[in-house]
Oxidoreductase (Rhizobium loti), 343 residues
Amino acid sequence: MMKVVLVGCGAMSRHWLDAARQIDGLAIVGLVDLDAERAQARAREYELSNAVIGTSLDAVLDQTRPDAVFDVVVPAARREVALSAFAHDCHLLTEKPLADSPDNARAIVEAARRAGRIHAVVQNRRYVANVRRIRRFLASGAIGAPTSIHADFFVAPHFGGFREEMAHVLLLDMAIHTFDAARYMVGGEPASVYCQEWEPANSWYRQGSSASAVFDFGGGKVFTYAGSWCADGFRTSWESAWRIVAERGSLIWDGDDALKAEVIAPGREGLIDKTEPIEVPPLDPADRVDGHRGIIEDFMRAIETGIEPETRGADNIKSLAMVFGAIESAETGRRVAISQEAQ
């Protein structure tokens, strides 16, 4: 039985606890929150009568001696939680983003390495079925190597609250999902970015609701992102709408169920090479999906086997570097290198 303490009992914790109670071999032995009543409410809601409740993570870890910590706190508190978990010899699974700054991200990843503990991030878009299918299809070489990756994200949610007041709201709050999915599907390693942000006249956000970015993924691959939090009408999926151009064909995905590909066929029609449809195979039985549950199970498997999880912090920091690189580019108006040292 794997014993876990969850810290941060706000609204997001429900997603974690919903997934956790579906998983055999996992026991939530402690709940931590600065508001003890909120932690107690979660314990009652999920019938965790034996869980230790507290406002101090160190104290609850001392009392329960768990195998792992689930971090669902606000990003500004991530580093403190991570260092506490590793000091108690716990593995750590954290909500996205990995950290609130490049320095804190690097410090957390380095602390995990020094402690010899598994550290992973809930980057759950990787566990979407069609993201898995696209990665396998492209890796098969059926349409050749990807060269140009394009993602559009146009949704207009009225969140209210902190999002409508925060800076860089699209890049900092949402874009990492698309950035990480792009890296994952095509095997890209971010090298540089040029990004522009703006605030349209129809926006109800304070700053950064719209952005356009061009990333160099290395190896002849370029990724473009166009997004908006205030684009009413013809909205895209929350997973974005994709076009991936490869050496011998293209793939398009609407972010929902419409996924199709074409490959170059013999002959031309005028100036244009002929193409024909090609099937994108269904999910492989080995593919793990199902959002938080899939990631938690992957994390548990990594602890049991010693194999690094797919969303390990040392890899996810590259997607976070894309976010901070895009923000720096938008602020400075120049192209920004995303070096290995920055990751």
Remarks:
- The first strand starts at residue 2 and ends at 7.
- The chain has two domains: 2-117, 126-287+320-337.
